[in-house]
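Predicting holo structure, thiamine diphosphate bound.
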Amino acid sequence: MSEPATEPSAPTDRPDGAEEVDPLTFLPADEPVHLVDADGTYHEDPDHPLDLTDEQLRELYRLMVVTRKVDREAINLQRQGQLGVYASCMGQEAAQVGSAYALGTDDWIFPSYRELGAALVRDVDAAGLLHLYRGTWLSDHDPYKHNFALMAIPIGTQALHATGFAMGARFDGKPIVAMTYFGDGGTSEGDPHEAMTFAGVMKSPVIFFVQNNQYAISVPLAKQTAAPTLAHKAIGYGLPGRRCDGNDVLATYAVTKRAVERARAGHGPTFIEAMTYRMEAHTTSDDPSRYRTKEELDAAALTDPLARMRNYLTKRDLYDAELEAAIDEQAKATATYVRAGIYDAPHGDPMELFDHVYTDPRGHFEDQVEQLRAELEGAGDAEGQG
Amino acid sequence: MSEPATEPSAPTDRPDGAEEVDPLTFLPADEPVHLVDADGTYHEDPDHPLDLTDEQLRELYRLMVVTRKVDREAINLQRQGQLGVYASCMGQEAAQVGSAYALGTDDWIFPSYRELGAALVRDVDAAGLLHLYRGTWLSDHDPYKHNFALMAIPIGTQALHATGFAMGARFDGKPIVAMTYFGDGGTSEGDPHEAMTFAGVMKSPVIFFVQNNQYAISVPLAKQTAAPTLAHKAIGYGLPGRRCDGNDVLATYAVTKRAVERARAGHGPTFIEAMTYRMEAHTTSDDPSRYRTKEELDAAALTDPLARMRNYLTKRDLYDAELEAAIDEQAKATATYVRAGIYDAPHGDPMELFDHVYTDPRGHFEDQVEQLRAELEGAGDAEGQG
Amino acid sequence: MAVTMAQAINQALKDAMSADDRVLMFGEDVGRLGGVFRVTDGLQEMFGEERCFDTPLAESGIIGTAIGLAMYGYRPIAEMQFDGFTYPAFEQIVSHLAKMPNRSRGTVKLPVTVRIPFGGGIGAVEHHSESPEAYWAHTAGLKVFTPGTPEDGYSMMRESIESDDPVIFLEPKRRYWMKSDQQLPVTTQPAREAVVRREGTDVSVFCYGPMVRTALEAADAAADEGWSLEIVDLRSLAPLDTASIVASVKRTGRAIVVHEAARNLGLGAEIAARIQEGAFYHLEAPVLRATGFDTPYPPAKLEEYWLPDVDRILDAVERSLAY
Amino acid sequence: MAVTMAQAINQALKDAMSADDRVLMFGEDVGRLGGVFRVTDGLQEMFGEERCFDTPLAESGIIGTAIGLAMYGYRPIAEMQFDGFTYPAFEQIVSHLAKMPNRSRGTVKLPVTVRIPFGGGIGAVEHHSESPEAYWAHTAGLKVFTPGTPEDGYSMMRESIESDDPVIFLEPKRRYWMKSDQQLPVTTQPAREAVVRREGTDVSVFCYGPMVRTALEAADAAADEGWSLEIVDLRSLAPLDTASIVASVKRTGRAIVVHEAARNLGLGAEIAARIQEGAFYHLEAPVLRATGFDTPYPPAKLEEYWLPDVDRILDAVERSLAY
Ligand SMILES: Cc1ncc(C[n+]2csc(CCOP(=O)(O)OP(=O)(O)O)c2C)c(N)n1
Ligand SMILES: Cc1ncc(C[n+]2csc(CCOP(=O)(O)OP(=O)(O)O)c2C)c(N)n1
Ligand SMILES: [Mg+2]
Ligand SMILES: [Mg+2]
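Done. C-alpha cells:
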C-alpha cells in the first residue's frame, strides 16, 4: 500500500458511523520511508521531497556528531562517578535530530529520558540536562526557554502532557505543534493509548514520535507487542500511522515535516514509528550481554546513522576535511563544556528541597525547614569540631 | 475488504520484523456481519454458517425474551425502591445472548455491570446478581459455579482479569476460553489496551467483546474516539478485529463462535465489536433526555433484536402461539422469582463486613469487630427500650 | 433564596470561568449532561465546547492532559466522576501533578483543580463511596480541600481555581443537597485555616467535609447529656492547620477525630500524632477516632453500620471523658 | 557462606517455585535479565518461560493479569520494577487486588505477591527511591510486609507466597547487598509479629525495612551517650503488631518511629496514634517521628539530607528524653 500524496484528515463527526476518509490511508506503507542508503545513495520520493539547503544538510550532520560526542562524554562521566546513571542515545541520533529539526521554534517537545539529540537541536544546555542524571537537581533547564519539557522518566506519561498542551494551542488558536517521544516499550502503557485517543477526538496538533529501538531494557519487540508494526496502532485512534527509517536522518526529517504541516494545518495528530536501534546498553547500569549477542550488535553497527549521512554528504560534495575539522572542534568544545558543567557543578543547597514544592507553602513543613537547618548547622559544627 | 475464510493466526516471533500473516486480515470487513434483516429475512454467509438446531434457535429467542423481562422487572424494582440503581441491557439482548451462547460451559465470562443477558445464558441466579444493585451484598453469586466472574464496575478493568485467566488456561494446557465484555467507552481506558497487548503477545485464548451501544453515559461515540470503527483497534495488537450486527443474534453468535474456535485452537485472541444501541437510560439514575432525542430512540426501536429473531423464527415456521405462551410463562416465572428473591432478601448481617476481607484477619481489626458488635447491641437495646 | 452545596460549587465554576477565560472545565459527562450530580450544569451552554467539554472515558488521560493544558497556560478544572474512579489517574496525580512543579525548580506551575465527589451515605454501588483523602494528603505537592458548607463550597472552589498549586477538591457528595441562605458570591476564610463551627469546653471534635454536619448533630446530642463539644471543621486536609488544632485541644484537653475513611492511616492518625506532639501535657485522654472500619466500603444496605454517625461520635466522647 | 538479602529472596522464589508449580513469577525484565537487581536471576532457566516470564511494559497489565491468573488457580508473584512505577497499577491493586476477595464474599481468593523494591539511599534518579507503603497500608484487603534482614527476606517471602491473601512485599533496595551467615532455608517468626532486634530501657524505636539497620546503628551510637534504645522491627506494616508495639512502650515510656517515607500520614502517624491509644498513661513524652520530609524525594546528591539517619534518630531520642 502506498501513502496518499496529501495526508488525510481525521473524521470529525460520524453520528451515523460514516467515514469521511478511507481508513486504509491511516495504515503505514509496507516499507518505512527511506531516502538514503548506508553508502549514501539518495532515492527520490515524491511524497517526501527534500526542502533543505546545503547548510541545513550539513547542520543535521553536525548535530548528530555533537550528540554522539556529548553522549559518549556522558558515559565517561558516569564511569568517572560524576553521573549516577546515564541512558545513551547512541544509534538514535538520526531519529532524534531529524524529527526535532522538522519543528518550528514555537513548537514544543515532550521528551522521555533519552532525548539528548532532540535537546541539542533545541539548544538546551546539555550540562543542565545531565544534572538529572547527576542528581544535582531533578532537572535543570527552563522548559519555557527552549520549548523543551522536562524529561519524563515514568514511561509514556509525557504523551498526555503533549496532547494536553496541543489541545491548549488549538483552543488558543495558535499554530503551535507539540511532539512527544517515547519508546517501543512505551506503546504498551495505558497513557500513550489514552493520549492518542484524546488527540484523535480533539484533533490536537500533536505528533507521537516513537523510536522503535527494538528493546525495552531487555525485552525485545516481539515480546512487547504482536502488532504487525507499531504504526499499525494509529488507525485505532483515527490517526495516520507512518514509518520511517530512523537511521536515515533525511527520511526521519521528511516524514516528521509532513506530520508537522498536517498538524499545523489543523488536520490533527500523526503517529510516527522510526525504526532504529539502541547501540548502547539501556543505561550505564544495564548489562546487555545477558540478552543480546555480539552478532546482533555488529549487524546494527552497519546501519550507523552518522556514517550514512556522512556518505550522503560526501556523495553530494558537501563534506570535506575542513567541515570535518570544524564539526569535530565543535563537538569537542561542547563535550568539554558539558564536562566542566558537570565537574564544576556546585553542590546543591539542601534548603532548596522546600522551595518549589508549593508556590504557597504556608502550613506544610515549616518545622521541617527548621529541622533541616538545625541539622545542617549541627553537621557544620561537628565538621568544624572534627 | 472481505475476511479470509479461516482466521489468520497472530505472528508468533518476528525478530526481524517479518510478518507471517498479511496484517490486512486483522482489519474488520467494510460492513458488520449481518445474517438476519429486521423482517426476519436470512442471508447466507459462507464464512459464518449456521450450526444451530431448531431447538437452539428457539432457545436463543427464549433467552432474549427472559432477559428483557427480567431487565424490565429490575427497572420496576428500582422504581419501587428495592434496588438502589440498575443498568439496563435493553436493546443489547442479542449481543449478549448470541455471544455468550457461543461459549462452552468450561469457558469463562468476565462481565461489566450490564451483562444480565450473558448471565442468564450461564444460568446465573438473576436475583443473586441484582443484589449488587440492591446493595445487600457487593455481589452474591459464586463465580466458580457458573464460570461467570463478578461484575466489574470500574470501566474496562475486567479485560485484564480475563486475559490473565486465559493465560492461565494456556499455561495449564486446558482448552478454556475467556470472554470479556466492555463498552465503547471502555475502549478508551488504559486497561483494555494493556489487556489486548498482553493477549496478543501471549496468544491468550481470550475474546474482547465490545458492545458498541453508541454511548458512554451521555458521551456519543464520536466524542469517544476518532477510530474508523472500534474493531480497527485490533490490528494494533496483532488481533483480528471483527464486527457484527449486535442486534442480530445469529450474526453475533456466528462471529463469536468463530473467535471461540480460533482461541480454542491456540491461535489467540479476537476483538469483536457488536453494533447495538442502549435503548434505556444509562442507569435508572440517568436522564437521557438531556443528550438524545426521541427521533433517535424511535429509529433505534426499529432495530429491536427480539422482534427480528421472532420474525426469523416465524419465517422458518419455528414460532407459534404455543411457543409464545411457553416463553412468556417462563419469562414471567423468572421475573417473579427475581422479584421474590429481592423482596424477600434477608437484611445482610453487618458483622459479615469483617468476614471476607482476609482469609487470615488476625491483627487487622479485632477491636473494630468488638466495636460494631457493641454498637449493634446498643442499638438493639435502644430499640428494645423504644 | 436557598442555595445547595452543588449549586454553590456550580456558581463558583461559572464565576471563575467568567472572570478568567483561561479557566477550563472538563471530564466525563460534564458537558451536555452537566455532570452526574449536575455540578457543571449550564457551563457548556454558557462557555462553549472549548471551555467545558466531555472527554473520552480515561481518567489518566483527563489528568495528564490537564497537566499539559496547565503547562500551556490554562487553569484546568478536571472532574473525576467518582472517588473510586480516580485511581486510574493515580500515576499522573502522584508522579506529575504533585511533583512536576518541584521537579522544575519552580519554572512549571500547575494550577489544576481536580474535583472529586467523595464519601458515602448515598446508597450507591461499590466504588462510588470512597474516601481516598489520605492518599492525596500523604502526597507532598498537593493541596487537599474539602468544604463542609455551601459557603465554603463556593469560596474554597474559587480559591482552588485561583491557586497556582494543584488542588484536590473533595466534594462531600452526600452534602450536595445541603442548603444555605447565604447570598453568593461569598468569601470565607482561606482554606488553610480551620474554623471552629461550634465552641465547646469538654472535647474537641475534628471533622471535615461530610462529617461536619454529623459532628454538629453530635454536639447537639451531647449537649443533652451535658457534654460541651467544640466542633472544628478542618477544611484543608493538606496543609493541616496544626496551630488551630493544637489550640483547641489546649482549651478542652480532649480530642476526637471523625472521618468516613478507614481508621488505619486515615487523617485521624496524623491529627492524633500532631496533637500529642503539640499538646502533650494538655491531653487528659488519648486522641480517639470515630471513623469507618478497616474494611472495604460496604454494600449500600450495610453502610449505616460502617459509617461513623452521631452514636459512634458520642461513644468516643464518652470513652474520652472516662479517662 | 554469606548470603545477601537479594540472594535470600531469590532463593525463596526458587524454593517456592520448586515446591509448588502453581507459583509463577513475572514482570518487566525478570526473565533473561533476571531483574534489574538480579532478584529473579536464574528463575527462567530453572522453570522455563511459562513460569518466569517478561511482560509487556504495563504495570496495570501486570497486576490485572496476575489477578486473572490467581482466579484461575495460580499463585502469581508480580514484580513492579521500582516503587515509583507501581502507581500505574494503583487501580488494579486498590480496586481489585485488595477488594475482590471481600466483594466475592470469600469465593475468590487472590494469593498474589507483589514484589516492589522500595526506598532510597542508592543515588538513583527520580521515581526510583519512593516509599509508598502508607498507600498500601491504608488500603483494607492488603497485607504489607517488608524484611529488614536477609533471613526475613527468605522467610517472609515464602510466607507471602503461601498466603491466600494478597501481599505487597516491599524489598528494601538499599539492603539488597546486606549479608548474613544464615543457612537457607530458614523460618523466622510469622510476619505479623514484630521482633525486638535489640532490647533497651529508655526509648522504643519502631522501624522497618531499610531503617532497621539504621536504627540499630543509632542504638550503638546512643549507647555511647548512655541511652538505651529498644529497637523493634515491625516487619508487617499491615497488619501492625499493636500489642508488641504497646508492650514495648509500656516498658520504656518513650517511643520514636523511623521511616523514610514522608512524615505526614506516614506509618509513624498511625503508630503514634495507636501508642497513645494503648499506652496513654505510660507515655513520658510524645511519640516522635524521625522520617523523610514532606517534600518529593530529592535528587541523589541531596538524598542524604532528606533521609532519616543516625543523627536524626538521635535528635529525636534527645528530644524525647528532654520531656
Ligand atoms: C511506568 C514505568 N515503568 C517502568 C519503568 C522502568 N523502565 C525504564 S526504561 C524502561 C524500558 C523502556 O523501553 P522503551 O519504551 O522501548 O524506551 P527505550 O528505553 O528503549 O528508549 C523501563 C521498563 C519506568 N521508567 N516507568
Ligand atoms: C474507571 C471508571 N470511570 C468512570 C466510571 C463511571 N461510569 C460508569 S459507566 C460509564 C460509561 C461506560 O460506557 P461504556 O463503556 O460505553 O459502557 P456502557 O455503559 O455503554 O455499557 C462511566 C463513565 C466507571 N465506572 N469507571
Ligand atoms: Mg525501546
Ligand atoms: Mg456504551
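Chain C touches chain D through 46 residues (CB under 8 Å).
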